[in-house]
Design brief:
The complex is a heterodimer of chains A (80) and B (227). With 80 residues, chain A is an alpha+beta fold. Chain A has one domain: Phosphoribosylformylglycinamidine synthase subunit PurS (Mth169, Chain: A, 2-Layer Sandwich). Chain A is elongated, with a radius of gyration of 16 Å. By secondary structure, chain B is α/β, with parallel strands linked by helices. Chain B has a nine-stranded mixed β-sheet, with helices on both faces. In chain B, strands 5-8 form a two-stranded antiparallel ribbon. In chain B, strand 10 and strand 11 form a beta hairpin. The chains are: A alpha+beta (80), B alpha/beta (227). At the A-B interface, helix 1 of A face loops of B.
Protein backbone atom coordinates (compact mmCIF):
# COMPACT_ATOMS: atom_id res chain seq x y z
CA UNK A 1 0.00 0.00 0.00
CA UNK A 2 1.10 3.55 -0.61
CA UNK A 3 0.67 5.80 2.35
CA UNK A 4 1.00 9.57 2.02
CA UNK A 5 1.87 11.65 5.02
CA UNK A 6 2.51 15.34 5.55
CA UNK A 7 4.58 16.88 8.31
CA UNK A 8 3.87 20.47 9.29
CA UNK A 9 5.39 22.80 11.85
CA UNK A 10 3.20 23.34 14.91
CA UNK A 11 1.25 26.57 14.89
CA UNK A 12 3.42 28.54 17.33
CA UNK A 13 6.77 27.48 15.81
CA UNK A 14 8.50 30.15 13.75
CA UNK A 15 8.83 29.19 10.07
CA UNK A 16 11.44 31.56 8.55
CA UNK A 17 11.40 29.75 5.20
CA UNK A 18 7.62 30.07 4.93
CA UNK A 19 7.99 33.77 5.75
CA UNK A 20 10.52 34.36 2.96
CA UNK A 21 8.38 32.42 0.47
CA UNK A 22 5.46 34.63 1.51
CA UNK A 23 7.51 37.80 0.96
CA UNK A 24 8.70 36.55 -2.43
CA UNK A 25 5.14 35.74 -3.53
CA UNK A 26 4.12 39.24 -2.43
CA UNK A 27 6.99 40.66 -4.46
CA UNK A 28 5.86 38.67 -7.52
CA UNK A 29 2.48 40.30 -7.32
CA UNK A 30 0.40 37.52 -5.74
CA UNK A 31 -2.00 39.49 -3.62
CA UNK A 32 -4.00 38.65 -0.54
CA UNK A 33 -1.79 35.96 1.02
CA UNK A 34 -2.22 35.82 4.80
CA UNK A 35 0.50 33.33 5.60
CA UNK A 36 2.71 30.61 4.06
CA UNK A 37 3.84 27.60 6.10
CA UNK A 38 6.30 25.13 4.67
CA UNK A 39 6.10 21.39 5.39
CA UNK A 40 7.27 17.98 4.20
CA UNK A 41 5.56 15.24 2.22
CA UNK A 42 6.42 11.53 2.27
CA UNK A 43 5.04 8.69 0.22
CA UNK A 44 5.78 5.31 1.73
CA UNK A 45 5.24 2.12 -0.22
CA UNK A 46 4.84 -0.59 2.42
CA UNK A 47 4.46 -4.34 2.00
CA UNK A 48 1.14 -4.43 3.78
CA UNK A 49 -2.34 -5.01 2.35
CA UNK A 50 -4.32 -4.14 5.45
CA UNK A 51 -5.05 -0.40 5.50
CA UNK A 52 -5.25 -0.10 9.28
CA UNK A 53 -2.01 -2.01 9.83
CA UNK A 54 -0.22 0.02 7.15
CA UNK A 55 -1.34 3.30 8.66
CA UNK A 56 -0.40 2.16 12.16
CA UNK A 57 3.09 1.34 10.90
CA UNK A 58 3.49 4.75 9.28
CA UNK A 59 2.20 6.44 12.41
CA UNK A 60 4.95 4.73 14.38
CA UNK A 61 7.53 5.81 11.77
CA UNK A 62 6.34 9.39 12.12
CA UNK A 63 6.62 9.32 15.89
CA UNK A 64 10.06 7.71 15.89
CA UNK A 65 11.79 9.37 12.95
CA UNK A 66 9.87 11.29 10.30
CA UNK A 67 8.55 14.00 12.62
CA UNK A 68 10.02 15.69 15.67
CA UNK A 69 6.96 16.03 17.86
CA UNK A 70 8.49 18.93 19.81
CA UNK A 71 7.93 21.15 16.78
CA UNK A 72 6.03 19.17 14.17
CA UNK A 73 2.65 17.50 13.62
CA UNK A 74 1.99 14.71 11.14
CA UNK A 75 -1.11 13.69 9.26
CA UNK A 76 -1.76 10.68 7.04
CA UNK A 77 -3.54 12.16 4.06
CA UNK A 78 -4.07 9.16 1.86
CA UNK A 79 -3.72 5.38 1.67
CA UNK A 80 -4.11 3.41 -1.53
CA UNK B 1 41.23 10.44 31.43
CA UNK B 2 39.85 8.55 28.45
CA UNK B 3 37.66 10.21 25.88
CA UNK B 4 35.92 9.05 22.71
CA UNK B 5 34.93 11.16 19.74
CA UNK B 6 32.26 9.65 17.49
CA UNK B 7 32.68 10.12 13.75
CA UNK B 8 29.49 10.04 11.69
CA UNK B 9 29.39 10.27 7.90
CA UNK B 10 29.59 14.03 7.43
CA UNK B 11 31.23 14.93 10.74
CA UNK B 12 33.90 17.56 10.09
CA UNK B 13 35.01 18.79 13.51
CA UNK B 14 35.95 15.35 14.80
CA UNK B 15 39.69 15.78 14.19
CA UNK B 16 39.74 19.29 15.66
CA UNK B 17 38.11 17.85 18.76
CA UNK B 18 40.69 15.04 18.84
CA UNK B 19 43.50 17.63 18.72
CA UNK B 20 41.88 19.71 21.46
CA UNK B 21 41.25 16.78 23.80
CA UNK B 22 44.79 15.43 23.39
CA UNK B 23 46.33 18.87 23.86
CA UNK B 24 44.81 19.09 27.33
CA UNK B 25 45.67 15.55 28.41
CA UNK B 26 42.83 13.27 27.36
CA UNK B 27 43.71 9.88 25.88
CA UNK B 28 41.30 10.12 22.97
CA UNK B 29 39.96 7.42 20.69
CA UNK B 30 38.04 7.98 17.46
CA UNK B 31 34.95 5.79 17.25
CA UNK B 32 33.10 5.01 14.01
CA UNK B 33 29.31 5.41 13.98
CA UNK B 34 28.79 1.82 12.84
CA UNK B 35 30.62 0.39 15.87
CA UNK B 36 28.45 -1.13 18.51
CA UNK B 37 30.51 -0.77 21.66
CA UNK B 38 32.09 2.33 23.16
CA UNK B 39 35.66 2.06 24.39
CA UNK B 40 36.12 2.71 28.10
CA UNK B 41 35.48 6.45 28.36
CA UNK B 42 35.25 9.19 30.96
CA UNK B 43 33.86 11.51 28.30
CA UNK B 44 32.09 10.90 24.99
CA UNK B 45 32.00 13.73 22.45
CA UNK B 46 29.64 14.08 19.50
CA UNK B 47 31.45 16.53 17.21
CA UNK B 48 30.24 19.22 14.83
CA UNK B 49 29.62 18.77 11.15
CA UNK B 50 26.81 17.79 8.84
CA UNK B 51 26.07 14.18 9.73
CA UNK B 52 24.15 12.41 6.96
CA UNK B 53 24.08 15.67 5.01
CA UNK B 54 21.55 17.12 7.48
CA UNK B 55 18.88 15.02 5.71
CA UNK B 56 15.35 15.08 7.14
CA UNK B 57 16.34 17.16 10.19
CA UNK B 58 19.85 17.97 11.41
CA UNK B 59 21.05 15.11 13.61
CA UNK B 60 17.97 12.94 13.10
CA UNK B 61 19.69 10.16 11.15
CA UNK B 62 22.81 10.15 13.31
CA UNK B 63 20.67 9.86 16.44
CA UNK B 64 19.53 6.42 15.19
CA UNK B 65 22.98 5.10 14.21
CA UNK B 66 24.38 1.92 15.79
CA UNK B 67 26.85 3.50 18.21
CA UNK B 68 24.17 5.83 19.60
CA UNK B 69 22.51 2.96 21.51
CA UNK B 70 25.70 2.61 23.53
CA UNK B 71 26.06 6.39 23.88
CA UNK B 72 22.47 6.66 25.17
CA UNK B 73 23.04 3.83 27.67
CA UNK B 74 26.31 5.44 28.76
CA UNK B 75 24.53 8.79 29.30
CA UNK B 76 21.63 7.18 31.13
CA UNK B 77 24.05 5.49 33.53
CA UNK B 78 25.59 8.88 34.37
CA UNK B 79 28.43 9.01 31.80
CA UNK B 80 29.54 12.42 30.57
CA UNK B 81 28.40 13.12 27.02
CA UNK B 82 29.06 16.40 25.28
CA UNK B 83 27.61 17.37 21.89
CA UNK B 84 29.03 20.37 20.02
CA UNK B 85 27.01 22.02 17.24
CA UNK B 86 25.79 19.08 15.10
CA UNK B 87 26.49 16.95 18.19
CA UNK B 88 24.00 19.13 20.12
CA UNK B 89 21.47 18.60 17.31
CA UNK B 90 22.02 14.83 17.55
CA UNK B 91 21.52 14.89 21.33
CA UNK B 92 18.17 16.69 21.11
CA UNK B 93 17.06 14.19 18.46
CA UNK B 94 17.86 11.29 20.83
CA UNK B 95 15.72 12.93 23.49
CA UNK B 96 18.66 13.05 25.94
CA UNK B 97 18.38 16.85 25.85
CA UNK B 98 15.19 18.92 25.76
CA UNK B 99 14.11 21.16 22.89
CA UNK B 100 15.15 21.35 19.27
CA UNK B 101 17.41 23.45 17.00
CA UNK B 102 15.58 25.24 14.21
CA UNK B 103 16.85 27.09 11.16
CA UNK B 104 18.50 30.41 12.11
CA UNK B 105 15.99 33.24 12.33
CA UNK B 106 17.39 35.23 9.41
CA UNK B 107 18.11 32.13 7.27
CA UNK B 108 21.84 32.84 7.19
CA UNK B 109 24.68 30.46 7.91
CA UNK B 110 26.48 32.20 10.79
CA UNK B 111 30.22 31.86 11.22
CA UNK B 112 31.75 34.22 13.80
CA UNK B 113 33.06 34.63 17.32
CA UNK B 114 30.48 35.26 20.02
CA UNK B 115 30.47 35.76 23.75
CA UNK B 116 28.54 33.40 25.99
CA UNK B 117 27.60 33.86 29.61
CA UNK B 118 27.95 30.84 31.87
CA UNK B 119 24.65 30.37 33.66
CA UNK B 120 25.34 27.28 35.74
CA UNK B 121 28.76 26.39 37.19
CA UNK B 122 27.50 23.67 39.51
CA UNK B 123 28.51 20.81 37.19
CA UNK B 124 31.56 18.99 35.79
CA UNK B 125 31.73 21.12 32.66
CA UNK B 126 31.95 24.65 34.06
CA UNK B 127 32.82 24.23 37.74
CA UNK B 128 35.90 26.29 38.72
CA UNK B 129 35.96 28.44 35.57
CA UNK B 130 36.78 31.87 36.99
CA UNK B 131 35.47 33.90 34.08
CA UNK B 132 31.74 34.49 33.73
CA UNK B 133 31.80 34.92 29.97
CA UNK B 134 33.77 33.06 27.31
CA UNK B 135 34.55 34.04 23.74
CA UNK B 136 33.83 31.07 21.49
CA UNK B 137 33.19 30.42 17.82
CA UNK B 138 29.88 29.51 16.22
CA UNK B 139 29.33 28.12 12.71
CA UNK B 140 25.84 26.88 12.03
CA UNK B 141 22.70 27.14 9.95
CA UNK B 142 20.36 25.50 12.47
CA UNK B 143 21.22 26.86 15.91
CA UNK B 144 17.96 28.53 16.77
CA UNK B 145 17.10 26.82 20.07
CA UNK B 146 13.41 26.27 20.60
CA UNK B 147 11.22 24.48 23.12
CA UNK B 148 7.65 24.72 24.33
CA UNK B 149 6.61 27.11 27.12
CA UNK B 150 6.25 24.22 29.56
CA UNK B 151 9.71 22.93 28.64
CA UNK B 152 11.34 26.32 29.03
CA UNK B 153 9.86 26.59 32.51
CA UNK B 154 11.07 23.11 33.34
CA UNK B 155 14.64 23.65 32.13
CA UNK B 156 14.76 26.98 33.92
CA UNK B 157 13.49 25.47 37.18
CA UNK B 158 16.01 22.62 36.92
CA UNK B 159 18.87 25.00 36.14
CA UNK B 160 19.49 23.24 32.81
CA UNK B 161 20.52 26.33 30.85
CA UNK B 162 24.32 26.20 30.58
CA UNK B 163 25.17 29.18 28.35
CA UNK B 164 23.44 32.29 27.04
CA UNK B 165 24.59 34.37 24.06
CA UNK B 166 25.69 37.67 25.59
CA UNK B 167 28.02 40.62 25.12
CA UNK B 168 31.57 40.54 26.47
CA UNK B 169 30.39 41.77 29.88
CA UNK B 170 27.75 39.06 30.16
CA UNK B 171 24.75 41.19 29.30
CA UNK B 172 22.09 38.98 27.73
CA UNK B 173 19.87 40.79 25.26
CA UNK B 174 18.28 40.40 21.84
CA UNK B 175 21.18 42.45 20.39
CA UNK B 176 23.53 39.59 21.24
CA UNK B 177 21.27 36.84 19.95
CA UNK B 178 22.85 35.63 16.70
CA UNK B 179 20.26 33.10 15.57
CA UNK B 180 16.90 33.78 17.25
CA UNK B 181 17.31 31.22 20.05
CA UNK B 182 14.59 31.39 22.65
CA UNK B 183 15.90 33.40 25.65
CA UNK B 184 19.38 33.57 23.99
CA UNK B 185 20.05 29.93 24.89
CA UNK B 186 23.34 28.64 23.45
CA UNK B 187 23.72 25.48 25.51
CA UNK B 188 21.66 23.19 27.76
CA UNK B 189 22.18 20.24 30.11
CA UNK B 190 19.98 17.26 30.80
CA UNK B 191 18.33 17.22 34.23
CA UNK B 192 21.26 15.37 35.84
CA UNK B 193 23.87 17.71 34.21
CA UNK B 194 26.00 14.85 32.84
CA UNK B 195 24.89 15.51 29.25
CA UNK B 196 25.76 18.87 27.67
CA UNK B 197 24.85 20.23 24.27
CA UNK B 198 26.29 23.51 22.99
CA UNK B 199 26.26 25.32 19.66
CA UNK B 200 29.62 27.13 20.16
CA UNK B 201 32.86 25.29 19.34
CA UNK B 202 35.38 25.39 22.22
CA UNK B 203 37.76 23.21 20.15
CA UNK B 204 38.25 26.14 17.77
CA UNK B 205 39.58 28.42 20.50
CA UNK B 206 42.62 26.55 21.77
CA UNK B 207 45.44 28.37 20.06
CA UNK B 208 46.22 32.07 20.61
CA UNK B 209 47.94 32.26 17.22
CA UNK B 210 44.82 31.15 15.37
CA UNK B 211 41.83 32.22 17.39
CA UNK B 212 41.69 32.68 21.11
CA UNK B 213 42.21 30.80 24.31
CA UNK B 214 38.82 30.60 25.95
CA UNK B 215 38.40 27.08 24.60
CA UNK B 216 41.65 26.19 26.39
CA UNK B 217 40.14 27.42 29.65
CA UNK B 218 37.17 25.13 29.04
CA UNK B 219 39.19 21.97 28.26
CA UNK B 220 41.82 22.50 30.99
CA UNK B 221 39.05 22.92 33.49
CA UNK B 222 37.07 19.96 32.16
CA UNK B 223 39.89 17.44 32.53
CA UNK B 224 40.61 18.65 36.05
CA UNK B 225 36.95 18.35 37.00
CA UNK B 226 36.72 14.81 35.63
CA UNK B 227 39.86 13.57 37.46
Amino acid sequence: MKISVIITLKKDVLDPQGKIIHQTLDGMGFEGINEVRQGKYFQIDAKEDDKKKAEAKVEEMCKKLLANLVIEDFKIIGTQ
Amino acid sequence: MNSSVITFPGSNCDRDMDVALKKFGFKNKMVWHNDIELPKSDLVVLPGGFSYGDYLRCGSMASKSKIMKSVINFAKSGGKVMGICNGFQILVETGLLPGVLLRNKYLEFICKNVFVKINNKDNSYFKNIKKDTLELHIAHNEGNYFCSNEQIKEINDNNQIALYYSDKDGKVSEDNNPNGSIKNIASVFNKEKNVLGMMPHPERMIDPALSGEDGSIFFKNLINNLK
